[in-house]
Amino acid sequence: MLLLGLLESLGPRMEQFHLELAEEKTQRLEFGRYARANAYRRGEKPKDFEFLGMTFFCGKTRHGAFKVKRKTSRKKLRQSLARFTDWIRRFRNVLPTGELLRQAKARIQGHLNYYAITDNSESCKLYGHLTRRVLFKWLNRRSQRKSYTWEGFQQALRHVGWPQVRVRVNLNPFARLNG
């Protein structure tokens, strides 16, 4: 009954912002404190959903309480890495090394500014690791002689101030109460 009331009120609310609900993308699923236990009882896996490039799933805090958790969707992670790889392949011989590293830093920083939220540090670390490997690989393919050793490459990244993975947006509603 609550769900029907929600769906009825959602249409007018979205119209206020000149939006409309896409029925083909809309689904109803059990989500919340007991969703995981209920799914396991039925012999199923708990459902998750994707929204704005993030996968939302039911999780638990360190103390065992229910918590909505988020991580970068696999699709968006692959797309972002593919765009970065395509960019580095096209510009590795066009831009000077310093400028290439600065632009690569800006691209990584942009990704982290969006995706570095509470509970998503593992996906962000993976993205950072994979982009560093791609950058190292394509910088060393500019000529037959290697441009960098891994240590020299790490030093160059430190020189340009390569971004570190840290939570930029804390979505824990109680974090401000404890501090």
Distance between the termini: 40 Å
Structural class: mainly alpha
Q: Please summarize the sheet with the most strands.
A: 3 strands, antiparallel
Strand content: 5-15%
Low-confidence stretches: none
Average pLDDT value?
87
User: How many E strands?
Assistant: 3
Shape: elongated
Count helical runs. Answer: 7
Helix content: 40-55%
Element order: H for helix, E for strand: HHEEEHHHHH
Specify Rg, calculated over alpha carbons: 21 Å
Structurally, how many domains make up the residues? 2
Strand order in the largest sheet: 1-2-3
Give a structural overview.
- The protein has 2 domains: 57 residues, no CATH class; 87 residues.
- 52% of the residues lie in helices and 9% in strands.
- Strands 1-2-3 form a 3-stranded antiparallel sheet.
- Helix 3 packs parallel to helix 5.
- The mean pLDDT is 87.
Q: How would you sum up this structure in a few lines?
A:
The chain is mainly alpha-helical and 179 residues long. The protein folds into two domains: 16-72, no CATH class; 74-160.
Provide tags for this entry.
single chain; mainly alpha; 2 domains; 3-stranded antiparallel beta sheet; 7 helices
Layout: helices, strands, pairs:
Elements: H1 2-16, H2 35-41, E1 49-51, E2 54-60, E3 66-72, H3 74-91, H4 97-115, H5 121-139, H6 150-160, H7 175-178
Antiparallel strand pairs: 1-2, 2-3
Helix pairs in contact: 3-4, 3-5, 4-5
